[in-house]
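Quick sanity check, Ribosome-recycling factor:
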Amino acid sequence: MTTIAEIKNTAASKMDQSIAAFKNNLAKIRTGRANPALLDTVHVEYYGSMVPLSQVANVSLLDARTISVQPWEKGMGAKIEKAIRESELGLNPASMGDLIRVPMPPMSEERRKEMAKLARHEGESAKVAVRNLRREANEALKRLVKDKLISEDEQKRAEAEVQKVTDKHIAEIDALVASKEQEIMAV
């Protein structure tokens, strides 16, 4: 038998996971600044199989506008460079001996607006996920009332608490979107 506390805790922890996933997605949205997380989606051919870039090279920042990629094996440089160039990130890597430099080109105003729109879209998706979790929690509470395990008053109180948790998570998502938009629009 599930209790009101279990339902609330489950909903809150799932909402926290939704926000963590949302933060991860936001990190991949390009701003004018370099961020090693940008290259998380790049896969490189390594002995016949496609592996994430982070498994064949060390990805770090050289400066605010340049990512450095240091392959762990000598022969991988050209393959890594090709994979970055062919990714849909619009980046142009340059080899310097064993080190590959990936400069971040400045973004046009139009591209900035596209990225801000993408950040808002990701925020909306995260809010939908949080609201779905609220709905699941409320349905679980209704089942408890139907099974006569709790009273309707207890259900109303619990739903109000679930709503408070939901509001807190949605406010956090809004704050993350606002700060990401500010970061994107900063020249």
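Posting the structure with no commentary besides this: DSSP finds four helices and six strands in the chain.
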